[in-house]
Amino acid sequence: MRISFRYISLLAGMLLLAAGTLRAEEEKATFNPKELVFAHLGDEYGWSIALPGGKHVAIPLPVIVRSRESGWYLFSSSRLEHGAGYAGFRIAPEGPHAGKIVEMNADGQERRPLDLSVTKNVLAVVITALVLLSVLFPLVRWYKHNPLRAPKGLLGFLEKIIEMVYAEVIVPVLGKEARKFGPYLLTLFFFIFFSNLLGLMVVFPGGANVTGNLSVTLALALCTFVVVNVSGSKKYWRETFWPEVPAWLKFPIPLMPLIELFGVLTKPLSLMIRLFANMLAGHLIMLVLVSLIFVFGMMGAVAQGGSALLSVLFALFMGLLDVLICFIQAYVFMILSTIFIALAREK
Amino acid sequence: MALLEPEFGLLFWMLLVFLLMVGVLAKYAWPVILKSMEARAAFIEQGVAYTQEAIERKERAEEEAKSLVAEAKKRQFELLEEARKAKQEMVAEARQAALDEAQKVLETAKLSVEQMKREAESQLRREVGKLSLEIAEKVIRKDLDSDAAQQEMVEKFLNEMEQAN
């Protein structure tokens, strides 16, 4: 305990110093926490990284758009930096499409082209995929070389997690069909888990708010929705469209079937919202806590120092809590998907 | 609010990458990992079962060996006892046989002695008769006509003498 106190006070001291130097810069520009927080939570075309000394570097990413008038375009996001335009495209500074690429149509109105750009979040998704591959394939190689030996070290830890997910959740719930749905559910779990963890990292390969983005959780929920309904048994569909309730609840007004159908849709929707809201909240609270330092910074050095200490302690606590939440949310998404599949497979 | 609007581009890429990952991992990674994990679990379980069985078998074998040794000892004791008895019996039998044989030899000897005695007696009688006849002939040669009558007389006398004895 004493050692951890010493580390925390050291950390706080360093942050006080850092806050003091940052104060000089922040004093000039008015600090807008709302803008900063939402910029970090959202997506962006290049991946901007803040460097010490108030500088920004943006990793350029490919922009892929299809104009309604002139077809496909592929160019670097660096061409659109600082409000610059390229080939009729620009990033809207405000309005309903703020922060997105827009083009002017013939009437002089801003419209969104078909936008398949590789944005920050897309790159983060790809990085997550690569991390996942580079972690799982060594395990595969280990098993190919040592068929009956348990892996050690990190691979052993990984195997423990796989066992916890597969042998303790998927197999007990799905039984004989575990081998059929296991690969999907395991991929789902590890993808979400790794995305969440990478999101907690502050700098480049991580830090993107991937699983706190509705499009991403929508894609995941959509996959579970498709798997559940494509593998639905006869009984599942009968219970959905002709459940065992008094006949007047089904005819002439199909009240129960409507409710059941609604349930079919709310299951994946709840998955989508739960993961999105939890991860968004995790990112949000950290950003807000750090922003507090700069908000108080506008009130003077003492207020800044005090708020820095408190904010850092809180942020540290929330960060540790977030590590737990990263795991829990991935686990919950996977468990619920497993249960939905099991319910749909009931004979 | 921008945060709550799904973005088509991101949705598209996310689906693409995720489905690709599901495909790749479901084909090349998960089957190997799950199969190996299950195989290892089964192997360990089997190993435990084998070990348990081996321990039980060993215990059973030990007990069996113990009972075998005990039985062998018992048998050995029995055999020794039997041998001892047989020896005693044989000795007794041999003794009996020797006694019987000796008895037999004694009897035969007795018989032959008797016979010899009888022969000797009859021979002696004949000799004595002859001698007496010769003596009597010499004494009373003229008194008697034939040898047969004389012999008959002598026999008569001898019989009388024997009866008198």
Could you walk me through the main structural features you see in this protein, from its secondary elements to its overall organization?
Chain A is built from 9 helices and 8 strands. With 347 residues, chain A is mainly alpha-helical. Chain A folds into 2 domains: 62-115, no CATH class; 120-344, no CATH class. In chain A, the strands form 3 sheets. Chain A has a 3-stranded antiparallel sheet, with no helix packed on it. In chain A, strands 5-6-7 form a 3-stranded antiparallel sheet, with no helix packed on it. Chain A is globular. Chain A starts with a helix and ends with a helix. Residues 20-28 of chain A have low confidence and may be disordered. With 165 residues, chain B is mostly helical. Chain B has one domain. Chain B is 91% helix and 0% strand. The longest helix of chain B has 132 residues, at 8-139. Classes of the chains: A mainly alpha (347), B mainly alpha (165). The interface between A and B is large, with 54 and 36 residues.
| Shape assignment of chain B | rod-shaped
Element pattern of chain B in H and E: HH
Helix fraction of chain A by DSSP (H/I, runs of at least 4): 55-70%
Distance between the termini of chain A: 55 Å
Number of helices of chain B: 2
Helical residue percent band of chain B: over 70%
Tell me the fraction of residues in β-strands of chain A, as a range: 5-15%
Biggest interface found: A-B, 54 and 36 residues
Mean pLDDT of chain A: 86
By secondary-structure content and strand pairing, the structural class of chain B works out as: mainly alpha
Rg of chain B, nearest Å: 62 Å
Number of domains of chain A: 2
Give, in spatial order, the strands making up the sheet with the most strands of chain A: 4-3-8
The number of distinct helices of chain A, counting runs of at least 4 residues, comes to 9
Given the helix and strand composition of chain A, which structural class is it?
A: mainly alpha
User: What is the domain total for the residues of chain B?
Assistant: 1
